[in-house]
Protein 1
Amino acid sequence: MSTIPEKTEQQTGPACESASLINSENGKLHKFNMDEILNCMHCGFCLPACPTYRQTGRESASPRGRIALMKGVAREQLPIDEEFENNMYLCLGCRACETACPAGVPYGSLLETARGVIEENKKSSQRPSWIRRIVFEKLFPYPKRIKALGTLLWAVQATGLQSLAAKTGLIKIFPRAMAEMQQASGKIASPFERKKRKRVMKAEKEKLFTVGLFTGCVMDILFYETNQATARLLTKAGCDVVFVENQACCGALHVHSGEMDLAVRLAKRNIEAFEQANVDWIVNNAGGCGAALKEYHHWFHGDPDWKERALAFVNKMRDANELLAELPSLTFGKPLPVRITYQDSCHLAHGQGIRNQPRELLKRIPGIEYAEMEQADSCCGSAGIYNLTHFDMSMRILDEKMENVKQTKAQIIATSNPGCLLQMKQGILRAGLQDQMEAVHVMDLLDRAMQSPHE
Amino acid sequence: MFSESKETGYISKEIKRELVSIVGAEWYLDSPNELYAYSYDATPIFQSMPNAVVMPGSVEEVAAVLKVANRHLIPVIPRGSGTNLAGGTIPIHGGIVMNMNRFNQIHEIDQQNLTATLGPGVVTADLHQAVEAVGLFYPPDPGSMRISTVGGNLAQCAGGMRGLKYGVTKDYILGVEYVLPSGEVLRSGGKNVKDVAGYDMTRLLVGSEGTLGVITEITVKLLPLPETKRTLAAYYKNLVDAARTVERIIASKIIPATIEFMDQATMKVVDDFAGLGLPTDMKAMLLIEQDGPEELVVRDIEKMAEIARREGAADVQIARNMEEGAKLLAARRAALSALSRIRPTTILEDATVPRSKLAEMVEEIERIAEKYQVQICTFGHAGDGNLHPTCMTDERNKEEIQRVEQAFDEIFRTALRLGGTITGEHGVGMAKLNYLDLQVGDGGIELMKRIKQAFDPNNIMNPGKLVPNHGRRRLVVKK
């Protein structure tokens, strides 16, 4: 029987922990849910699923370790300091551990809380870094600024990105990361192309639904064409597609970085925009955004009105793969005689439980030879802005991933998230496979196969 | 002998410098977060901070670290993935956690001698995969096999679901390389099937829970991979019918690879996790697997299905294929962790009885849970009499925890009365330290102490585990 030994008494914490909120010494509330933390019974089933644990072999770089550290902070046995911050941010947030966890511990939300606690603590003691301020407060909340950035990036690409990055000094901040990401990023749509976008695209056959496309912020700049392809596929499957005005960034990056207030502002804006659009479904094609969009109702604790509106939004939310797999089968005009594999988007697979749909859709393309990859649902290391903030770890994880990719001997790696797509493109370059292999978004690939040869 | 004071593991600046010079700065951890992350294992409630964590990369480094620790009387706690369930890797007296997961190479799979030689840090399931790729088989399969290391399995003598037919870890360890606290590197056993040269140190080290020395290389015995396997699930309206089915199967001279037992609450949580669609209105289920040549497997499975029906199974289903069977078994492996969905703290034990006493033990556990008003779910390796009565509780509720302790106390005593053991496969560690003498007697404890003394005169190897330092300690629950 597990007796409680003398020595551990002081370490097992106060006898009367409240179930949900813990008071800290300066009177501020830590928002850790102790029941959720204690639900982790440290069996370690998450360890082999965790990319950073696999790379380092260190307990503190595993989900079980991070939850233990959160417990330490919640019980005030550990301070909220730089070491704790580094450990919480070394996590990719891929949530593969949630799939592996028999106890059903909501790791993703625990991590968001931990990062929230860290940022809260920093705000009271110091000014946030200028990069955080610009990115989270000045850029993402404003769709127009994002579009302006898109135009700037297009101009930069047209005139030579490398030289501009060097001139602006950006290259000094993320030297290797920038250089490598530049090589991988695709062609950015010009402002003239974007202007040509129709507000509504009509269903090409009998109309079944009206769908509002959630275009995303970065997605609509770096992958404008993928959004267009998604819309075309939906129209061919019998949907009117509306490009809803006034939508903003989904807020996922903010939540993952502990910026809950800003995230809530963005969520409200999106909920309002799509309420006004009055659509049957809201569809997006970025797994990372989709997971956040489907969790909006968890962002409004203590605000029942907004929680209800959020829930209505969430109930309409579908990933493009998810909806297309349910709609009447698309007819493909063009066989694609290629060997293909699929890299799961973590937040699509672990966050939303969508694994079969993209694979089914791909297998419907005539001529395709599908090869399943080992550990396809293990993170590629992109993880939002992780590949900028933790470039070295990200590349170690990517290189491990590319070993599995190579085994498949595929000519195409399909993915369902812009971050993964960029990362896989970079992986192909790093592995020197650019002559044999291409990374493509599932929607672009399906769209390619829709077009008849002479189109 | 160590006192209970925290000072036992103190590492001065000079000692730290010595240790860093041995393993390198990258493999020496002592920041607050890192130490905290090695203050627990998979055992509930126990927690204690080490003073340092080292991750040696070679046998020379292990020997050098041990010499330093031995000179300064610093406890050393060898550790694999930290999945043990008896508090075996909790640094209860502080000191150095020696993480062995860099020893993760399979050096050789010898197809002529049917052996594999590997580092102790190899993950058990990785060994399975490697040997099965060449048509060979390493049977021990503890529930944590995808995480646990072979070194950890050896130190705890881990069991698993195939124990019924194939035995446990001790039946597959042919040889070891190990390091004594003095730094001396020794070998015992090897690839020989027969070897009676002196005392069997290999067997002694298996299950020694890191209290004698550090294992640095392991040679295991392999079998030919069975041709095929088939899985059967039988569902019951009461627990005792299920237990009696197990007794009848064994008595009819069939030895299946696996007979697993789950009660209703366990079935429910496992189904929540794995989504198998189990009939959760049933009170108990048996999961039976047989492996071997096709005709034999089919014959045995049909016979066992017949026995299950005769003993009152409400439904008997044979898995359509190996994948379906594997899914059922994988779900069963997750039972313990899945049970923590019910309450925050799950305390699991592994009292084991002779198979003929299984039904009686199951009834006793139900009675004891009722008596102390605690929630106990039972699952386990019914085929070898190894049950896992698991108590769902909340470590924050001290009064309830006290009742839980009393219930387990009675369960252990009942197991012993029925000719069983206090621990079938998890080990003594700290969790069962107070009960060891009930089973082995004072004479047995004294002899174990003298063996420990011979290997580790300064008592630096995982102190406070397996062998009680003082007389029998009273059951203590802090108020």
Protein 2
Amino acid sequence: MNMHRRVITLVALALASVSPAPAFAQGPVVLRIADAKTRVVVEREIARAAARGLPLQPLIAKAMEGVTKQATGERIQVAVSLLAKRLEQARVLLAPSTSVAELTSGADALAIGVPGTMLKQIRAAWPVERSVAMPLDVLTELVARRIPAQHALEQITALMARGATPSQIASLGSSVQADVAAGLAPDAALDVRARGVMSLLPSPAAAAASAPSGRRQP
Amino acid sequence: MSREVDRLIERVRSTLREAPEAVPDPRLVAQLLSAVWASPKPSMLRRWLDAWRVPAFSAVTATVVAGLALFAGFVTRGVIGERPAPEPLAASGPQTGEFPVQFAAATTIDEAAPVLTQFVLNDAKAERVSLVGDFNDWSGAATPLTRLDSGVWTVSVPLPAGRQVYAFLIDGTFLTADPRAPKSGDADYGREGSVVMVFPR
């Protein structure tokens, strides 16, 4: 009896000290979707994604975007399902990266038509411990401004190889945005802005000398 | 009474003195020790549990102990506790001469740290305007804009670095892109929004 009481006390203390956060984090997702049928279908889709180990936040956001945009239930379900597939593709292409930001950026790039092989090339351009979310976001943005994906990839990976920071790569995307809005041809805008960022970077020899060991070149 | 007790004690003593001295049988001792050594040893867990004394809890004590354990669990997992205070801000001005304007936290070195970004919409007729995007799950209630005397609506929100797609929700129903920012496509729902590149600091 005494032994039982000890064991029960130990188990209760262990449960009390470890259970709260996981219980909140992994509980079933409940979406604020008025249509019950749509809600059930979308929640099931998200539960399937959770079982595959995919990040849930982008899927929830996609579902709620559909609600705010007053899309039909069927359309919301299709959008969430397609995003789950893209996230899964991105996870394979960007391995070993598993951060939500990188997977989301990879999925966005795939959605806009960037080939999967380019995601691999972006991943290979920086060491694995360094997030490639920003280069992927800029690639997506440049393709959205009607720059051919191959051209955009070459400029971005060149900057990455020369040691450009995420902020400098972001400035490339932002500057090209502004130039295109001002009427400059997208390709020309990319070339001139990439040249500008490149001029701020150390020479290739200096970049290679300062690169950490084990760094992979594109 | 006391004298009778003393006499009884004396009789017991004398009887014991006269009894032969008890010498243990070596064979019995050997058998006993063999039996003890042959018995299975308790496991480490059993010995630890035997050594660990659990006081008999009253219902109130047990409730208090469970409450403290739960509290400790919540605190250690970050569910309860102080949120880190926001860092002091240093206005850096517009990045591209376009809206939204971004402000950098003065000491931020983390690439993933949110960056305060200002959004502006000029719509004097609107009664309510809110900002929606992936960063707030497209919730029309999460990020309302403030109306200035000039009729311009504005809000500054911390956003993660990278490409952010957003839109304005006017009067709770009308969704519109930012007229000052590049447009984003929307293959999923066919309602394009706007794009801002948030710079890491």
